Amino acid sequence: MIDFKNASVTYPGGVHALRDLTLQIPDGEMVVIVGLSGAGKSTLIRAINGLVPLTGGDVTVDGKSVAKARGGELRRIRSRIGMIFQTFNLVKRTTVLNNVLMGRLHATPTWRSLVGRYRPGDVEIAMRALERVGIVEKAYVRAANLSGGQQQRVGIARALAQEPKIILADEPVASLDPPTSHMVMRDLQRINRELGITTIVNLHFLDLAKVYGDRIIGMRDGQLVYDGSGAQADENVFRDIYGRSLTADDVLEAAATR
Amino acid sequence: MTSASLARPAERPRKPPRSLLGPAGIAAFLLITYWAVSSEFGIGLDLGAIVKDLDRGQVILADVLRPDFGFFERTIPAMLETIQMAIIATAIGCGIALPAAFLASRVTAPNAFVLRVDRGVLNVIRALPDLLYAMIFVAALSIGPLAGIMALILFNLGVIAKLLSETIDGVDTGPIEAARAAGAARVQTIRTAVYPQVLPNYVAFSLYVLELNIRASTVLGLVGAGGIGRLLNLQIGFGNYDNVGFIILELFLLVFAIELLSISLRRRLV
Amino acid sequence: MTASVIPLPRRPEAPSRTKRNLTVLATLALLVWALLSVDAELDRLVDLPARLASMFDRMFLPPDWDYFGTAAAAMVASIQMAWIGTLIGAVISLPLGFFGARNVSSGPVSNMVRLFLNAVRAFPELVLAVVVFVPIAGLGPVAGTLAIGVHSVGTLGKLTAEAVEGIDPGPVEAARATGARPLQVQRWGVIPQVLPEVVAFWLYRFEINLRAAAVLGIVGAGGIGQILSNTLEYRRFDKAGMAILIIIVATILIDYISGTVRRRIIEGSGARRIQGDVLEQPELVEVPASPLSERGRAMARVDTDVG
Ligand SMILES: Nc1ncnc2c1ncn2[C@@H]1O[C@H](COP(=O)(O)OP(=O)(O)OP(=O)(O)O)[C@@H](O)[C@H]1O
Ligand SMILES: [Mg+2]
Fold first, then answer.
1. CA B193 to ligand 1 centroid distance, Å
2. pLDDT digits (tens, 9 = 90+) for B1-49
3. Which residue of A has its CA nearest to B191?
4. Within a domain: residue C85?
5. Environment class of A181 (CB within 10 Å of its CB; exposed 0-12, middle 13-18, buried 19+)
6. φ, ψ for residue A58 (rounded to 5)?
7. What is the ipTM of this complex?
8. What confidence score (pLDDT) does residue B1 get?
9. Which of 1.10.260.40, 1.10.20.10, 3.40.50.720, 1.10.3720.10 is the CATH number of B71-269?
């Protein structure tokens, strides 16, 4: 369970990216966060694993305060939370397997990671994560040699290798073409349903949000402006969230056909 | 785009001032040059006199350009020593430079204090030429290759740490964020998210430094720090300029060989 | 669902690491050979820290402040040597660089020029000073200056040629298309493109030459090196300390000024960014003279994606 209590983030420049946010996300939910660019979606997601520190309030994960955690304590919390990025954030020069093994670092002694010898058990976990996203045959290929969709699956496998309770995904499909976007989103959905991992996804495209979000959270200007099921969210709701009428840019299929 | 914009033709912009090449810049340049060339304040460069005495150098240069290949056998021990010194200094210097570079990059330094101290130390190290280190170590250790090795280590440390830390400044920070998000400790993050990105450069820089070390050996010997330079110094002293020419040619070829080696090595390692 | 019926793709075999391991092993073997066979009396390292500490003590705690004037004057001479030497190198290398560039010169000419530049670079300043310029100009800063100048012709000529080869051919074509004469094409089509970069090279070279000028005195070719070798030889460490202090301060200061000017030139001109981080800052590293001319750059260049 993720619990935001009056959480606020003010960036050094004075931008209030999160204003007094209170929100609960129970275990096993598939949540999609939507909102205009700059609404604070990334900030919200990064506050959950402490990549962005709160400037007010608190956020707890399974009762442990992320805001107060430091050092090893914070790393332990993070180890239970996988993260997937818009730009994949892979080390392109090394193999797919090594990238996925980064998800096992929290369980690996420092000296082992220094000499690059992971435990066989950790390699097994990484291999299984690759099998789950269907690209195990690429294990020894350099990450740079994969297509965008394949790279994002490596990113997902890396998160899965952590054996996390929660997966955060910050615009995971924004760099992908429409069919690939759907494939990646289905992967995430399957992971959420089969493994019961709480999954929180930032999305730009409303049609994707409606299809994959069991719950949709709308953000505007650092505040929560909508919280409801994906089925309920119709065009009017999105118009409210965006504070303007919708355009073709807000929909994946429309954007794709242009 | 209506009559309003047609009515008032845009004013022609004035020519912007030329920052560094302006009159002040040129004047400063000429002044410094005059100051440096003049015989009262500067080094007293008189091109006429030099042209007149050019023939004095001709004899020697002619000898240098006619290298004596028979000298080869006698250069072997000193050449081997040069190679040994270069290898040892490269290995140690580059070994120390790796952590030093991580501490000197904004991306990987643990905090601003460490960053500043490390950069400061590296700047001081790089401010002194390799030959000066050689002189200092000769004074501390007496003459011999050990002084040369120590001098080269410091020289290598300065060069590699600088080049590598700048490379690290430019790495893709995405993987770093990913490693942190996965709960990795700092050292693990550096090892898995940064090191693989800069490894090819590190190897390239190290091989490059190996080559610089071979080159430096000519001059290290001048101050008694071992290697082929000692022999070179002797031959200069004896006035055997054909041997001098041969040594220079030999070094040139050695550097060439190292380049070929390093190209194939880099292909394999990277 | 049919998906579960399809057998999982097999896990691939880990690729063989033998070749890589052999390379690493060979490198280590080379290092061990060097360590075992070098005649360096490594045991002397044991008391090196103590000796360095006592030297440091005698050099800097305190340095001989009375010697400041003498040492500073010698450092000024070194700076002047570096300045003029760089200037000589710049003036001579600029046309040579154009003749050495394959895209604006002809094949045979550029090959000849490059061969010449590489040969010049094979002679370090110190050797040039001893062998050529001290006999011509006598002991003193003029010999050192000329040695710096000639060596710089080699390095700067090569960098200039490569900069010219890297230009965008568009403006050259455009200049030609306006009916400009060959020299005009160079002046308006090529020079504006390469000048910022080339001037930046001159400044780097000045920084490197400053270090050379600081040691040329060892062979009597002028500057502060003379003082260093004398004081160290006669173990007047307090005087040597003063000289070293002056070298450090002056060098860092000039690096700083030169670096600032360089950055302004490169940014101010909107010059194309040189690929990678490193060539942009080939700080004080001399690109080696090489029969394989392209390689110095290839080395220094950060190839962002190998394979
Ligand atoms: N590191 C930072 N420093 C200062 N301000 C920041 C920083 N990161 C984000 N901001 C600001 O905070 C606000 C919210 O940013 P955030 O990245 O959370 O928005 P977002 O909803 O993810 O937008 P997008 O859809 O463009 O990714 C924006 O106004 C942004 O400019
Ligand atoms: Mg965002």
1. 24
2. 444 445 566 677 766 555 566 677 788 888 888 888 887 777 777 777 7
3. A114
4. yes
5. buried
6. -150, 155
7. 0.90
8. 43
9. 1.10.3720.10
